[in-house]
């Protein structure tokens, strides 16, 4: 009932996602970056109706495709308010890494505590997970009848590693607390889809991640 398409391309090799309800063909796009054209082509090829643009945070590699996605789709952009300063500094972030960035359009909606964002039969619940940056969120994706859950964690947690904390607004102790108190509160079977690299599970990271085990 739930379909997750993941794509990444250079220079950042950052994962962008299309999350779709197979029953209704409604979908969302998450963290559109340099791979945005591929994600939009995928949605078109699968006859998906993308309802929202959801951002896990506003570091430049996660937002380089937001303008193109908004232009193509005309749907609301969601972000945590605490990352607005990064979002508004997209051009400056790009200059830091030597990459051109199209100025993203204004954010339409800010995540709120306890919020449920629904599309088709899928529900997305944002959970604030600061540390990598002040406004990082985990997007908890659930569907009826599925005991599991999928977590899109941005750059908070990776397979065998954790997010960096040396960028503006980063804090190591806050990041570890977000992982232990928020992400580890989900069951071991929860599937983790990070912003870079391969997917993993909460259980695998709880047992083997050298920063957390």
Could you explain the architecture of this structure?
This protein is α/β, with parallel strands linked by helices. It has helices at residues 36-45, 66-73, 84-88, 90-97, 172-181, 202-208, and strands at 2-7, 16-21, 26-30, 49-54, 76-79, 109-110, 117-119, 122-128, 137-142, 150-154, 157-158, 161-162, 191-194, 200-201. Strands 1-2-3-4-5-6 form a six-stranded mixed beta sheet, with helices on one face. The protein has a six-stranded mixed beta sheet with strand order 7-8-9-10-13-14. A two-stranded antiparallel ribbon has the order 11-12.
Structure summarized in a few sentences:
The protein is built from six helices and 14 strands. It has 213 residues and is α/β, with parallel strands linked by helices.
Keyphrases for this structure?
213 residues; alpha/beta; 23% helix; six-stranded mixed sheet; globular; 6 helices; single chain
Instruction: Please trace the helix and strand order, writing H or E for each element.
Output: EEEHEHEHHEEEEEEEHEEH
Secondary-structure-derived class: alpha/beta
Radius of gyration: 16 Å
Largest sheet: 6 strands, mixed
How many beta strands in the DSSP annotation? 14
Shape: globular
Largest sheet, spatial ordering of strands = 1-2-3-4-5-6
Low-confidence stretches: none
- Quaternary state of this entry equals single chain
Strand content: 25-35%
In whole angstroms, the N-to-C terminal distance is 33 Å
How helical, in percent, are the residues?
10-25%
Mean pLDDT: 96
The helix tally amounts to 6
